[in-house]
């Protein structure tokens, strides 16, 4: 039988417990446990001898790199239970941009989370806004590098738009999103297959404020009132002035109706988000 000193046993146990402890990240994101490689540690129990040396202090294990902690990112953490609560997800496209900071201010004042679908070139230009969004508890998805219609691209260009955007996001905040909103909502079988191969769920919407087209707050709120239901995904753009104006109005009106505001991962918590599938709202997913 192999014998271990008491000090060896303590260190081994500390490492084992550390490996099993749950991780929590700023922004409400936790890693997908299946992606974390934790070596198995086997400790054989033996009776300590009477002259065992005094147990030394156990050093803290090293903190894993962000890529290891957040290999898939955007896992749902906390928030309302959308199986029993009425839930809405606010989403913002095309940033970080001129109005992202104002949108973040409005969300913070209302104390609600949202999901930002960001463009690679915009992240490269304004990384500090992406860091702030994650730090304040919002979820992140990709929205291509340069906003082309993905169905018109060859596979090489398509991969650039998807992969390089996620690489830029990972470089800034330390995790790779598993959410992607195709520009214009345009996907076909080929694009969805490539997205599925990359592990990306296609997040669409069922409420369009048309803030990019009308630039009119009353019209935007009219569309919200006509279309919003339990499980809805509301589309806005944090590169236009309507978005920060609409946030407090939507939150006030729908909170009074008993709705809870959640991120996309929270909206689909308890349901399987399928890579390559089109997610229009919590209850409408096309495989």
TrEMBL record:
Keywords per UniProt: Hydrolase, Metal-binding, Signal
Listed Pfam families: Polysacc_deac_1
GO biological process: carbohydrate metabolic process
Molecular function as annotated in GO: hydrolase activity, acting on carbon-nitrogen (but not peptide) bonds; metal ion binding
Boundaries of every NodB homology domain copy: 86-262
Keyword presence, Acyltransferase: no
Protein's recorded name: NodB homology domain-containing protein
Organism: Boudabousia marimammalium
